[in-house]
Amino acid sequence: MAVELANNISELDDVYPLRKDDLTEGSTHIRNLKTTLKAQFAGVNGNGFSKAITAIEDEINYLEGLNSNLQLQLNSITARLELLEG
Protein backbone atom coordinates (compact mmCIF):
# COMPACT_ATOMS: atom_id res chain seq x y z
CA MET A 1 0.00 0.00 0.00
CA ALA A 2 1.23 3.48 -0.81
CA VAL A 3 0.60 5.50 2.33
CA GLU A 4 0.45 9.13 1.35
CA LEU A 5 2.43 11.74 3.20
CA ALA A 6 1.26 15.34 3.36
CA ASN A 7 2.25 18.54 5.09
CA ASN A 8 -0.84 20.48 4.09
CA ILE A 9 -4.38 19.77 2.95
CA SER A 10 -3.67 20.42 -0.73
CA GLU A 11 -1.21 17.52 -0.74
CA LEU A 12 -3.82 14.99 0.41
CA ASP A 13 -5.01 12.74 -2.41
CA ASP A 14 -8.65 11.75 -2.06
CA VAL A 15 -8.09 8.48 -3.95
CA TYR A 16 -6.07 7.04 -1.04
CA PRO A 17 -6.35 4.52 0.40
CA LEU A 18 -7.06 2.39 -2.65
CA ARG A 19 -9.67 -0.41 -2.44
CA LYS A 20 -7.01 -3.07 -2.90
CA ASP A 21 -4.80 -1.66 -0.13
CA ASP A 22 -4.23 -3.65 3.03
CA LEU A 23 -6.66 -2.65 5.79
CA THR A 24 -3.91 -2.87 8.41
CA GLU A 25 -2.45 0.42 7.14
CA GLY A 26 -5.72 2.28 7.56
CA SER A 27 -4.62 3.60 10.94
CA THR A 28 -1.55 5.12 9.28
CA HIS A 29 -3.81 7.04 6.91
CA ILE A 30 -5.92 8.31 9.80
CA ARG A 31 -2.84 9.41 11.77
CA ASN A 32 -1.54 11.22 8.67
CA LEU A 33 -4.86 13.04 8.27
CA LYS A 34 -4.76 14.14 11.90
CA THR A 35 -1.15 15.30 11.61
CA THR A 36 -1.88 17.22 8.41
CA LEU A 37 -4.96 18.93 9.86
CA LYS A 38 -3.13 19.89 13.06
CA ALA A 39 -0.26 21.30 11.00
CA GLN A 40 -2.60 23.25 8.72
CA PHE A 41 -4.75 24.55 11.59
CA ALA A 42 -2.01 24.84 14.18
CA GLY A 43 -3.67 27.29 16.56
CA VAL A 44 -1.84 29.43 19.09
CA ASN A 45 0.19 26.66 20.70
CA GLY A 46 0.85 24.65 17.55
CA ASN A 47 -1.24 21.69 18.73
CA GLY A 48 -4.38 22.41 16.73
CA PHE A 49 -7.26 24.71 17.56
CA SER A 50 -8.23 24.50 21.21
CA LYS A 51 -11.78 25.75 20.68
CA ALA A 52 -14.40 25.39 18.01
CA ILE A 53 -14.58 27.93 15.18
CA THR A 54 -18.19 29.10 15.15
CA ALA A 55 -18.08 31.58 12.27
CA ILE A 56 -20.15 30.66 9.25
CA GLU A 57 -18.66 30.52 5.76
CA ASP A 58 -19.88 33.99 4.75
CA GLU A 59 -18.36 35.57 7.87
CA ILE A 60 -15.00 34.00 7.12
CA ASN A 61 -15.22 34.97 3.44
CA TYR A 62 -15.80 38.62 4.43
CA LEU A 63 -12.27 38.57 5.86
CA GLU A 64 -10.75 38.02 2.42
CA GLY A 65 -7.85 40.39 1.90
CA LEU A 66 -7.47 41.11 5.60
CA ASN A 67 -3.77 41.08 6.37
CA SER A 68 -3.59 42.38 9.93
CA ASN A 69 -5.72 42.74 13.05
CA LEU A 70 -9.15 44.03 12.02
CA GLN A 71 -9.67 46.07 15.19
CA LEU A 72 -6.34 47.87 14.67
CA GLN A 73 -7.36 48.70 11.11
CA LEU A 74 -10.74 50.07 12.27
CA ASN A 75 -9.05 52.12 15.01
CA SER A 76 -6.67 53.60 12.45
CA ILE A 77 -9.50 54.54 10.11
CA THR A 78 -11.50 56.06 12.97
CA ALA A 79 -8.50 58.13 14.08
CA ARG A 80 -7.94 59.43 10.53
CA LEU A 81 -11.62 60.33 10.19
CA GLU A 82 -11.53 62.20 13.49
CA LEU A 83 -8.50 64.18 12.27
CA LEU A 84 -10.31 65.07 9.04
CA GLU A 85 -13.46 66.12 10.88
CA GLY A 86 -11.29 68.27 13.16
List the helices and strands and how they pair.
Layout: H1 26-40, H2 57-61, H3 70-85
Question: Key terms for this structure?
Answer:
86 residues, mainly alpha
Protein architecture, described:
This protein has 86 residues and is mainly α. Helices cover 42% and strands 0% of the residues. It has three helices and no strands. The longest helix has 16 residues.
Structural class by sheet pairing and helices: mainly alpha
Number of strand elements = 0
What is the count of DSSP helices, taking H or I runs of 4+ residues?
A: 3
Low-confidence stretches: none
Task: Tell me the Rg in angstroms.
Answer: 21 Å
Number of domains: 1
Tertiary shape: elongated
Summed over residues and divided by their number, the pLDDT gives a mean of 87
Query: Order of helices and strands, N to C?
Result: HHH
Helix content: 40-55%
Give the terminus-to-terminus CA distance: 70 Å
Largest sheet, in brief, is: none
Strand content bin: under 5%
Q: How do you describe this structure in short?
A:
With 86 residues, this protein is an all-alpha fold.
